[in-house]
Structures are given as C-alpha cells and as structure tokens.
Prior knowledge:
There is one protein chain. By secondary structure, the protein is mainly α. It has helices at 6-14, 17-26, 32-48, 52-59, 65-78, 83-87, 90-97, 103-116, 120-127, 133-145, 149-163, 167-180, 183-200, 204-216, 220-233, 238-250, 254-267, 272-291. The chain is globular, with a radius of gyration of 20 Å.
Amino acid sequence: MADPLFSVKTAFYIGAYRQCVKEAQKLQLGDQALALECDVLMYRAYLAEGKFNLVIGETESRHGPEFRALVILAKILQSPADKDSICAEVGNVLNEGAVSVCPDLVALLCANIYLSAGDYDNALRVANSCGSLECSALALQTLLQINRVDMATKEFKKIQERDEDATVSQLAFAALNVSIGEAKSVQTAFYIYQELADKFGPTPILLNGQAVCLLMQNKPEQAEDILQKALDKDSGHPETLVNLSIVSQILGAKESARRYINQLRDAHPTHPHVVRLADKEKLFDELATARS
C-alpha cells in the first residue's frame, strides 16, 4: 500500500523544506493519525528552516503531546544554552505520548529533543523504544555522533531488514559509510547522495553529502564546485558555510574561509561549529594571557 505521506516525508528527509511544507499543505487526510503526522512533518520543516517562533506560535495552544514536543524542540533549537530547564518537561510528554494517537511520533520528537540537547543516552533510549524506521535512523545518527560506528553498523542491519530502499534508510547508509571512512565506503556514500539528487533533485543536504565525500577523496576543488551549487540554493545553509570554510582553508583561501565563518556566526550564532570555535578561541586567549 502506497504511503500517502511519501512526498512529504521524502522532501523533509532530503532537506527540501519548502517543498515539504507545500506538499503537506496540499494534502487532505481523513485519517487522524496521518493528518497529525503530516502536520508534525510540516512544522519540523519550519524548524529546519530556523522558523522557531512560527512553530511555537502555531503549536503552543494546540492540544496533544506531539505539539508539546514540537514546542520543546523549537525552544531548545532556539536557546540551546537553556537545554536543562527546557528538557525537564520531556518525561511528562513521553508519558502522555505513550497513550496518544501517534506514540511513535511522540517518541521520535522526544528523541530529537534529547539529541539536540546532547543527551545521547536518553536519545538512544527513547529512539530504541519505538518501532518506526525513522527512530531507528535517529538511533544510528546518535551512535555516529558518539563515534560508535560498530554499534551503528549493527543498527543499520536492523534498518536494512525492514526497508533498505526507503529514502531515510539510504541516507542512514550514506552517513554510516562516510563515518566508516574507507575508500570504498566513501565512494558508496557519494553514489547514494548522487542517486538521490538525480531522483528527487539536488538539495543542500545532498550536495553537502557529496562534497564531504569528495573532500575525503582529496578532491577539494570538486568539493568547492558542489558546495557553491548548494550555496546558490540556500545562501544561509549552515553546513554549506561550514564546509566551504574548510575547503577554503585547504585551498589556501584564508579570507574566504573567514568570510564563511562570519556569515555562519551572523546567521546561526548557536550552531555547534560556532560554539566550538568560540570555546577554542576563549581557551587560546586564556593560554596566551597565562604565558604573557
């Protein structure tokens, strides 16, 4: 049976967020659970675009654990420094979600909240508690973030047994291959990103995936060309700016690298790369002061 949300899900997974919103708004769904999942996908697309206040404004007054989870996710993405106080509500949302129309959807959102807060243990616990394919992919993503490629490989085998051809499964496989880092694995990842781009259209996420593979193959000039295409599609896309700054450093274009970092700081001041850079700069200043 065809999934009525296929186009909405696919657009979200590959990072075509405007398309995801448009597809979601077009659908007329009689089934309550499907309609709820469609709404959540649309709001997750808005969050991916950085429209935190829009999501909070439209969902804060709506009833149900799915919308409470969306509000929490929006708040933690908007103010990661307040993650401890924001995450305090998640347990109650999970309990309420267990008896909701879409328990797996609530679990997915809560796992995303924990992952965004850097609480990897709880992210894995919640992701593994539900049966959706996307929760399994999120568990794999979490394992890769903590450098457990061995466990992520086992997780992918579960995904593979369920539906290895699904878009979310293919993206998980590509991410796993990039993390493995061997020449053959990186080439496999590149082909996955390329095939998805050919099938559904290139997006900044898919183009960045290809560019990372090219960088790992020591092809910075080709990586830069692809990243420029990604920048043309979204001039403020954070991963594009991060990767362009890295490519520029490799190619010796220090001014360009600084420009991309400054753009990232202006547009995404709470991005993890910006936070890490600020921490390193602070540490450098402290060491310099101590030695002077």
